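Long-time lurker, first post. I've been practising inverse folding by hand and with some scripts of my own, and I keep getting stuck on stretches where the structure tokens seem ambiguous. Below is the full token string for one chain I'm working on. Before anyone asks, I'm not after the true native sequence, just a reasonable design that respects the backbone. If someone could post their per-position residues I'd love to compare against what I wrote down in my notebook.
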């Protein structure tokens, strides 16, 4: 049964002021209702004025997604009554969005390139935020600091075929948005998704307002199973809106009354239609992830996989380019395969890593001063220091203090003899032709020498000792 998925992604655009007034969008650490004015509070008589920066951001996205920009665009009122929206309507766009018919390239589940079509993008204002204090308290709080924050809604065609694909699409989209500098990925609630999903031949279900990529994948995975089970039991999947309960990883049916209202869309009379076609000519794009990925492969000679990983986040790509000169191949391996994992494990970001220290570490590896095993230990010490807010010592200092300089094989002769003597069974196994036994013995020597010897060299020496009976 084919799974059909389409996403509506709401992106908070990074502008200094709100979409229709001069209130600052940077309310993060401020008291509720301190970034409001008559316009974003929707007081009678207040007139909205369009923030051109938000339009420019939207048009950057339109260009980056290869979209067709409309000649003229306009705003519309979407009427509904809810306390998060004091005017009684949201200013959004309806039949004249900014742009239509775009594309985003992702990898499908088989690893092949695949095109996801984008139907449209449009601007709209965010409503306020309701805080439900406690059930039974009889009241809720409302914060209008967010009311009027510019959002860009990006709607895909139903081209996605699995929850994993949906997640890859979102990662790709986020990378593009971050490259364009129209979006701050670290901001809470910066990207919210309505995920539409159906199984071929059935109605679509829309899971509203999911606030993380992992959440989207989880909600969709849950829906695939739920809908399959319904059909298996001979029941039907009805067209409905559902909510995702992040903590439990399930979706629940929303009251159907709320969604079936008629929004009575009509043109916003307080804002004039605007000519996007004129604005788009002045927009220039930076290098985007795909172009940067190809440049990394050509310029640094690194693999497609490494290039793809390293360009997935502009700050990661910047970091790589800063350290690559030491040795592009070595740097790619250490950043993409080792550093990222260690950062993930500690909940750290690439911007937390001092590039100069990492360059020094790469130089120690490249010159053969330390083994890979030791390098990982040193890297961990460096990251632990950064994570704890301590100064990050130069790796050479750590290596010296802890005596971790690479040893030559002969230096470990005694250790090797001891290990061989202590493990007669492994020695016998090796003599009987078992390759694994040698690895075991090498591992024992590595342990005793705290990784200071090169495992390949050790393998050769241990084998030689046994073969020549030099023990
Ligand atoms: N059969 C389907 N299965 C899954 N997704 C679908 C299917 N048909 C359409 N979709 C997706 O549903 C979404 C429809 O979004 P759109 O904004 O156009 O309308 P809406 O959800 O009805 O309105 P609203 O914006 O008020 O939520 C698109 O992302 C589209 O790809
Ligand atoms: Mg929509
Ligand atoms: Mg929808």
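-- Answer (accepted) --
I ran through it position by position. Result:
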């Amino acid at each position: 049964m084919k799974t059909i998925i389409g996403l509506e992604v709401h992106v908070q655009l990074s502008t200094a002021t709100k979409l229709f007034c001069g209130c600052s969008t940077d309310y993060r650490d401020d008291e509720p209702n301190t970034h409001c004015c008559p316009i974003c509070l929707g007081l009678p008589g207040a007139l909205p004025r369009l923030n051109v920066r938000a339009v420019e951001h939207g048009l950057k996205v339109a260009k980056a997604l290869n979209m067709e920009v409309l000649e003229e665009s306009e705003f519309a009122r979407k009427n509904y009554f809810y306390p998060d929206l004091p005017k009684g309507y949201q200013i959004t766009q309806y039949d004249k969005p900014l742009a239509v018919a775009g594309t985003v390239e992702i990898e499908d589940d088989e690893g092949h390139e695949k095109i996801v079509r984008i139907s449209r993008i449009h601007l709209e204002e965010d409503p306020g935020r309701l805080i439900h204090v406690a059930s039974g308290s009889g009241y809720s709080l409302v914060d209008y600091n967010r009311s009027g924050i510019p959002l860009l809604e990006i709607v895909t065609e139903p081209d996605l075929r699995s929850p994993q694909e949906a997640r890859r699409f979102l990662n790709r989209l986020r990378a593009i948005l971050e490259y364009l500098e129209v979006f701050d990925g670290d901001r809470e609630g910066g990207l919210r998704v309505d995920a539409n999903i159906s199984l071929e031949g059935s109605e679509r279900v829309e899971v509203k307002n999911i606030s993380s990529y992992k959440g989207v994948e989880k909600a969709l995975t849950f829906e695939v199973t739920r809908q399959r089970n319904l059909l298996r039991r001979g029941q039907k999947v009805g067209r409905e809106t559902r909510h995702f309960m992040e903590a439990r990883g399930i979706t629940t049916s929303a009251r159907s009354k709320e969604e079936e209202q008629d929004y009575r869309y009509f043109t916003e009379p307080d804002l004039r239609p605007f000519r996007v076609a004129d604005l788009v000519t002045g927009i220039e794009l930076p290098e985007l992830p795909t172009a940067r990925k190809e440049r990394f492969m050509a310029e640094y000679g690194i693999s497609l996989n490494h290039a793809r990983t390293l360009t997935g986040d502009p700050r990661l790509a910047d970091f790589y380019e800063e350290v690559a000169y030491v040795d592009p191949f070595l740097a790619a391996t250490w950043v993409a395969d080792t550093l990222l994992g260690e950062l993930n494990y500690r909940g750290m970001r690439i911007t937390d890593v001092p590039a100069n220290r990492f360059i020094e570490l790469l130089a120690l590896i490249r010159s053969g001063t330390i083994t890979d095993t030791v390098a990982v230990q040193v890297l961990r010490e460096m990251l632990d220091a950064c994570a704890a807010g301590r100064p990050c010592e130069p790796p050479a200092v750590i290596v010296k203090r802890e005596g971790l300089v690479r040893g030559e094989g002969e230096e470990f002769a005694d250790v090797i003899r001891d290990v061989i003597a202590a493990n007669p069974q492994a020695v016998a196994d090796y003599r009987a032709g078992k390759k694994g036994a040698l690895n075991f013995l090498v591992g024992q020597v590595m342990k005793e020498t705290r990784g200071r010897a090169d495992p390949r060299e050790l393998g050769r020496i241990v084998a030689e000792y046994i073969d020549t009976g030099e023990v």
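A couple of notes from the structure itself: Residues 8, 194, 206 surround magnesium ion (ligand 3) (CB under 6 Å). Residues 213-232 form the longest helix (20 residues). Happy to go over any region you disagree with.
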